[in-house]
Fold:
Amino acid sequence: MANLCVNIDHIATLRQARGGHEPDTIAAAILVELAGASGITAHLREDRRHIQDRDIELLRQVVHTKLNLEMAATDEMTAIACKVKPEECTLVPEKRQELTTEGGLDVAGNVDRLRAVCQKLHAANIVVSLFIDPELRQVEAARTVGADVVELHTGRYALASGDLAREKEYAHLLTGAEAALSQGLRVNAGHGLNYRNVKPVADLPGVEDLNIGHSIIARSVFVGLDMAIREMLSLVE
Ligand code: PXP
Structure:
């Protein structure tokens, strides 16, 4: 059975729109846990467009399930992670102009850098996940650099239009999950997952955490955060 980890970035997006305190990310994290989710995910972006350093520090104090810090593999972020000590860090590529994380991390093209960051995070007892496209060379590179987990980028699957295109993208996810498991890596998945497309991803072999943000926070505007999470949990489980 897959676990649901809720990405609360967009609670912070709404707060930053007015620059005040509402809605409060910490209250959101507590409600997410009370609704039964298995973890809280938050992306501290280099441009601090939504989650702020203070959010991460406070989340570390209140999250009792699992805190997954999404971050770029930079010296600044590595230092913050080693200080805050989330249970897990997910390394993602980051471009300033993008609306959200676009492609997966090019692990094969950045082996030395990513190996060094993995070592530093491991020294702080942090599990390291790499957000990758479901490609064999990236899975192999993830093992080479010493990652514990790969998070398979489900964006192309989520955006595929029509059954045929979706099945093709799903086949890539399946191959990616099987390859990762055979290399001794654990498997998470996320990006673009919603109430209509999540089930097949939750059924991927060995998949552990599904990191889902936008669709849950968007639905919570209408039905409330508790209900939005419970509805997603019933699909994931
Ligand atoms: N996983 C990763 C690595 C991400 O960067 C994001 C977006 O921040 C998500 C999961 C969640 O994506 P979504 O908001 O589309 O559910």
